[in-house]
Design brief:
Helix content is 33%, strand content 39%. By secondary structure, the protein is of the alpha+beta class.
Length: 184
């Protein structure tokens, strides 16, 4: 009973971490999680500002409010980290994931696979006599639903990117702002 109560307190959080784009930064972030026994459900990283050599790491994790606060504080102390934002706590944000889904099937299942792909607005990237490869973008639940439907039609292979997320509204999370051309 106590174990169930602890599980109920754990909430899913999406963290956005702005870091220097340099060797070893991702390893330090991952080390922080693994060293303390925290799980990462999803992790994506990519350069977002070439001129200033900045990357954004999007991390999805679960924890109690105290654990999430510890994670944010510890991330904030890593030297090349510039900004840690808990998008879940800040309110409305956009999350998307991309998946490549290969379904191997024949006959009527192929027609049904195309119909489902059209319903989910998935793009057909490859087609052979025995398989399709679809690209589907959307929320985690949309992609999971698409994959489950494809599984009912044949053998499935999946490659998922993980969550990319950004806060809604006018606040821009970058260190350097563009030059204001009206000032001289």
């Amino acid at each position: 009973m106590a174990q169930q109560a602890m599980q109920d307190d754990k909430a899913r959080h999406t963290l956005s971490v702005l870091v220097d784009n340099e060797a070893g930064v991702l390893a330090r972030v991952i080390g922080l999680f693994s060293g303390r026994g925290y799980n990462i459900e999803s992790l994506t990283v990519a350069e977002v500002d070439r001129e200033n050599s900045l990357s954004r790491i999007s991390i999805v994790t679960r924890g109690t409010p105290m654990v999430i606060e510890q994670i944010k504080a510890q991330l904030d102390r890593i030297v090349p980290v510039h900004n840690v934002r808990d998008l879940t706590q800040q309110g409305v944000h956009i999350e998307r994931e991309l998946a490549l889904v290969k379904v191997a099937n024949t006959g009527d299942a192929r027609i049904e696979a195309l119909r489902i792909a059209d319903t989910f607005r998935a793009s057909t990237l490859d087609s052979t006599l025995a398989s399709f490869i679809f690209e589907v973008t959307g929320s985690r639940s949309k992609i999971t639903a698409f994959v489950e439907l494809m599984r009912s039609l044949g053998d499935v292979e999946i490659a998922r990117t993980g969550v990319s997320a950004i806060a809604r509204g006018g606040n821009v999370d970058m260190l350097v702002r563009p030059l204001d051309s009206t000032k001289n």
